[in-house]
Amino acid sequence: MEKNQIIDLEITDLSYEAMGVAHYEGMTVFVTSAIPGEIVRAKILKVKKTFAFAKIEELIKESPDRVKIELNQWVQTGLASLAHIKYNKQLEFKRNQVVNLLKKAHLDDVQVGSTLPSPEETGYRNKAQVPVREVAGQLEIGFFRRHSHDLVPLTNFLTTDPEIDRVLVAVRDILRQYRVPAYDEIHNQGEVRYLDVRRSKATGEMMVILVCLHKDFVQLPKVATDIKKIPDVTSLVLNYNPKKTNVILGKVDYLIFGKPQLTDQIGDVKFRISPESFFQINSLQTPRLYDLAIKKANLQPEDAVVDAYSGIGTIGLTVAKHVRSVRGIESVRDAVKDANNNAKLNDIRNAKYVTGKAEEIMPKWAEKGMQVDIIFVDPPRKGLTPEFIEAAAKTNPKKIVYISCNPATLVRDLQEFQKLGYTFDQIDPVDMFPQTPHVEAVTVLERAEK
Ligand SMILES: C[S@@+](CC[C@H](N)C(=O)[O-])C[C@H]1O[C@@H](n2cnc3c(N)ncnc32)[C@H](O)[C@@H]1O
């Protein structure tokens, strides 16, 4: 097999990144935008030792699961790599990912629920974070081509709230008008690296964050005056990121105008969110995810609850009124401040959040003999650490409710809890990210009776 070769392929599977999978002369070929059941004439783009990448030249047999999309770039860039597949099939794809991981781990008897669909299939994201680069002599916003930093200009991001897309385009036009340079990552020069826009579904307020190479730039006063005039924009923040790095946000924020936090609501609890704090991006699906997790926890009024990887306290503060106490752990200092302030804002007095790494704080609590009834964990994609798992089990909770955004680390961690006397019999996928291959899932671990 060689680059630019044209071959006919039968697509038999979808990869975790939602590329069509085919086999050809002992090689696995990943074909962008292809769907199982399709026969495609494909052009080979890159050849590795045992696998290759290809793109469709001609669709010979089309799958009935394919849907027409407005922009091929959504799938090609990886912004919405499932957008060409019917929504019910996307839900099946996500469930299958969990089923396959369980099979690999010889846990075939664990039940996998059907994926809980999102109330909105598009336009559900309450936040957009888009790169700003110069393309053909002009400042553009868009999305990087898969596995690259080549910007594909876009103004319709499909998965973000259309109100956010409107503001992104308006800010782009203001930056163009005042000739603010886009960031040049090769030379670490220029100015605006990313545009970050967040919208509260509860209040309609929007916060604009300009991620910049410098703390200030000559055009900033004029740019700020014009951004203030965009309807519904309530604050502007300059995030200072001077480093040559792929990390999007720098460590310092300067409030240019408006309120330093956005106010949103989940169920009947209000939340103020700082720019550095994590907040679930699918506003309508989040309360459904939490409801499922809370129902599975079967909380009792006398329960002592731990909310680990708590962000701004969304899970703990949602359950605080129904339990004895909530103790939360979160590594981002601003998020912890938000969590404790959010407790006050909602007149919740039995919840307290601390700053630190969950894998360091939990062993200390276990050491002190802290009594815990229920632990909620909601870690980032890399999952839990052995130190956290051991300490969590040591506090002897009745239940550990695991909310995960990566089924591979979820299954790995569940097996570790099993070794420590916890059992589980069901995983429930929840679609927080329609049109993308990301899978969220909830599992409850119960202490086995000794
Ligand atoms: C997936 S988010 C969940 C946040 C929150 N539970 C929610 O639903 O909004 C994971 C959170 O874990 C935090 N985090 C990452 N690594 C951590 C660690 N080692 N210890 C504690 N928190 C951590 C992140 O800052 C983020 O707020």
TrEMBL record:
EC number from the UniProt entry: 2.1.1.190
Keywords: Methyltransferase, S-adenosyl-L-methionine, Transferase
Cited PROSITE patterns: SAM_MT_RNA_M5U (PS51687), TRAM (PS50926), TRMA_1 (PS01230), TRMA_2 (PS01231)
UniProt xrefs under InterPro entries: MeTrfase_TrmA_AS, MeTrfase_TrmA_CS, NA-bd_OB-fold, SAM-dependent_MTases_sf, TRAM_dom, U5_MeTrfase_fam
Active site: C405 (nucleophile), C405
Transferase in keyword set: yes
GO process terms (BP): methylation
Gene3D superfamilies: 2.40.50.1070, Nucleic acid-binding proteins, Vaccinia Virus protein VP39
UniProt-annotated binding residues for S-adenosyl-L-methionine: Q280, Y309, E330, D378
Molecular function, one GO term: methyltransferase activity
Top-rank EC class of the record's enzyme: transferase
Domain TRAM: 1-58
PANTHER family: RNA M5U METHYLTRANSFERASE (PTHR11061), TRNA (URACIL(54)-C(5))-METHYLTRANSFERASE (PTHR11061:SF30)
Family that this chain belongs to: Belongs to the class I-like SAM-binding methyltransferase superfamily. RNA M5U methyltransferase family.
Name of the protein: 23S rRNA (Uracil(1939)-C(5))-methyltransferase RlmD
